[in-house]
Task: structure prediction
Amino acid sequence: MNDKLSLTELQLFIRDSLYTSLPGLYWVTAEISDIKENFAGHCYLELVEKHPDEINVRAKAKGIIWSNRMRFIRPLFESVTGDTLRPGIRILMYIKVEYHEIYGLSLIINDIDPAFTLGEMAMKKQQIIRKLEEEGIINMNKELEFPVLPQRIAVISSSAAAGYTDFIKHLTANKYGYCFYIALFEAIMQGNETETSIIAAFDRIAGNISLFDVVVIVRGGGSQSDLSWFDNYAIAYHITQFPLPVITGIGHEKDLSVSDLVAFRSEKTPTAVADFLISSVLNTDEHLMQLSSELSNTALEIIGEFRERLINSKLRLIPAAKISVSSVKENLGSMIISLVSNGKDYLQKERSQLVEKTSLVRSGVRAVITLNRTRLKESSKVLPSKTSVYLAQNESVINNFSTSLSLLNPFNVLKRGYTITSLNGKIIISSQNTEPGDIIDTQFADGTVSSLVKARTAQGKES
Amino acid sequence: MTKKVFSFNEAVKEIEKILQNIESGRLDIDRLSDEVKRATELIRQCQKKLRTTEEEINSIFKELE
Result:
């Protein structure tokens, strides 16, 4: 052999050596760290094996699934595992080692055993569940008290998802007319960003926790391939730690994800979640109706009891009253009898007292009369002498009066030369009362003359 | 914001307490009518809450988005 080799010669030598030492097909396990499909349908993978710490890579190789194999591998894998060939999952593949002088080493994947991946997934899921159990938090959300009125709902979903629309439609169109307040917290429901996106939504709800009664995670039904995104420790952890009950409806008929397991309740579909919420409110409503009817029944019962008591009282009252009346009547009769006899005695006593008093009054009166009569007699004896003295005293006074009176008599005045003048029979005392031509009468002591007034002269003044 | 918020849970508790009082027979007949009236009013409010939209909550929800 020549001591120098061209690169081609070396590469071909490696290839031949590999073919010789690894001639057949081998079952190999590895984790997909990257996967790309080109326009022709050929699939190029990056395969790794990690250290137990799950971070550092221990081995790495390229893998290729030719499109003619891919056509068979993919549908089987997806239907068995409910997942896709994607980064992060471990596969068991049936490979042939190939070496190309330009492209180097490739593992040509002839087949993939989906049962292996399924087992791996189940194992991973079990690991998550075991971890949550060991931490003692797996049932924390289930242990929350469910609100009597789950009306304020924080929904984690994608507004584009059919499941979300179904949920809203079903909830708001409930036949009981119950009202629900729904706030959507938008999240990515599949793919690598699922975890961070859902956790961010939880954080946003936590910031407004007092506004909500319950959290709902819903996802479009149909596609079952993405369920494994919810077999996620971080999401499950957030559900267990959330202070509100979380209800999931992430649309998987066959199996439950870890998120479903730790949630307060999980339903197969978003519609079923809506039904559960409606029935919760219905329960409360029925409880209210029951309270209402209990209330009216009890109140009526009590009123009935009181009515019965009243009737009983009435029944007992009548005979009692009769007895009472007759005893009163008896008492009254005896009282009348004693009153009559007592009255007679009293009258008798009063009458005799009256007679006594009458005789006393009579004799008293008689004594007074006798006394006054003697006084009168004495007075009449004294009266004549007392009268004559009194009369004598008054006689001189009377004489004085008669002297004064005779001085004032007009006739005595006329005798002294005065006259009385009158006109038409009326005495006139002023010249002003006459007019020339009047005939005036002048009375003297011994007779009267008539004269004609010729003129009148006022005292000191001519008329 | 100091407006007293109607509490469904408290209302239901009060209804149950009234009912208990009535059933136990401790209740004065003079108060029976008042208590029944109160309980009925609470039930009515509770039932209203199940079916009435609260504008306030809706507006808060809008702010969240």
Observations:
- Chain A is about 50% helix and 20% strand.
- The interface with chain B takes residues 148-149, 151-152, 176-179, 181-184, 204, 208, 211, 281, 284-285, 287-288, 291-292, 294-296, 298-299, 302-303, 306 of chain A (CB under 8 Å).
